[in-house]
Amino acid sequence: MATGSNTSKHLKNSTSESSSPSRNKGDQFERRAEQYLLAQGLQLQMRNYLCKLGEIDLIMSVGNTLVFVEVRYRKNNHFGGAAASVTPAKQQKLRRAAHCYLQSKGLNESLQSCRFDLVACEGTDIHWISNAF
């Protein structure tokens, strides 16, 4: 039984250590977006918050406002671009994940000021859309 446990632990570790090229590119653009937002005066609270309802790329703050940031990359805008890829379904998923985050921190969503920002990376350009949805 210990062997099976060690094997699954090893497989889990080796899987998490190896990343796909698209995930590596995603991480690269998330870091770029983070640096951009830090330069704009936002403060980082957390990267890649994950709960059963979804993931939030960056959680930042400005003043007393929590900023939930979705980072999207597209090589070009031939099919609507990065901003257009955040569908209403994706927005709802982000709202639900943000709700989980607030609950995990013991924050009251009716009293905590929040917004959802989008950082759309297209080619080498960065477009920051504050209060995107």
TrEMBL record:
Pfam families the record matches: UPF0102
Family: Belongs to the UPF0102 family.
Protein's recorded name: UPF0102 protein ACFQ1C_02005
PANTHER family, per database record: UPF0102 PROTEIN YRAN
UniProt-listed NCBIfam families: PRK12497.1-3, YraN family protein
Region (Disordered): 1-28
Coiled-coil annotated residue ranges, if any: none
HAMAP family attached to this UniProt entry: UPF0102
UniProt cross-references to CDD domains, sorted A to Z: PoNe_Nuclease
